[in-house]
Amino acid sequence: MEQSMLHEISDILDNLKRVKPLVHHITNYVTANDCANVVLAIGASPVMADDPEEVEEIVSLSRALVINLGTLNKRSAESMLKAGKKANELGIPVILDPVGAGATSYRSRTAEEIIQNVKLAVIRGNMSEIKAIAGLDASTRGVDASEQDVNTSKDLWYAKNICVNLSRKLGCVIAITGTTDIVSDGRKTVFIRNGDKMFSSTTGTGCMCTSLIGTFCAVCDDYVTAASAGILALCISGEKAVEKLTQTDSGSGSFRTYLIDSVFGLRGGDFMERGKIDVSI
User: Fold this and answer.
1) DSSP class per residue in the chain
2) pTM of the predicted model as reported, rounded to 2 decimal places
């Protein structure tokens, strides 16, 4: 089953590069440049438009919408709802990154409003963010998962139950990224064991991950597979970037550059050769 899924992901990447989908982002201005570059590197086209006056028109031209709460404000919150509802009308997948959910009442309230009013394809977050959305006790450290929740996520049975139950409750794919990434649609659950600790030393890797998920969702309506593909694409590229780092004795700034370079050079065969996944049904 695992090899079959990796082969399917490999084919989706090839199709993505042929289609070159437009992916609309209403996203975090701290990481917008990295998100745009990683989408370009994988072979798609990003657009970062967040004014309420134009988001409905932009999303109408796109094949996926990525909503990221990283630098949330009243204007962007209005745009997220308008674009999300328009995407629903057109059957365009919407991917939510609830950055910092649980950290403040405003973030939690906005995430809840989006979830209640927009049909989502995928929600991707760290353990603290997903627990907050699920209504469970969670502690955050700014926009990062708390050490307590990071340690909790290592209990894969517990983390899987959160992922599966929330997916069934909300009717969308849930992706929890951490030491082991977990993706579930409430029926099929995928565990991804690729990646490297360097991700935690670089701002924006979670946002880039969500952008790649959105890009794969643009060309694949099996969203548990698309979400797994986006995560794997970043994680495998991260491993390749670290290999370059060790050759050059470089640091986190070079890691970001090597990461995008590795996404650019990613090929379908990389999933087959390097993908470390387990699939549970």
Assistant:
1) -HHHHHHHHHHHHHHHHHH--EEEEE--TTTHHHHHHHHHHHT-EEEE---TTTHHHHHHT-SEEEEE-TT--HHHHHHHHHHHHHHHHHT--EEEE-TTBTTBHHHHHHHHHHHHHS--SEEEE-HHHHHHHTT----EETTEEPHHHHHHHT-HHHHHHHHHHHHHHHTSEEEE-SSSEEEESSS-EEEE----GGGGGSTTHHHHHHHHHHHHHTT-S-HHHHHHHHHHHHHHHHHHHHHHHHHHT--HHHHHHHHHHHHHT--HHHHHHH--EEEE-
2) 0.94
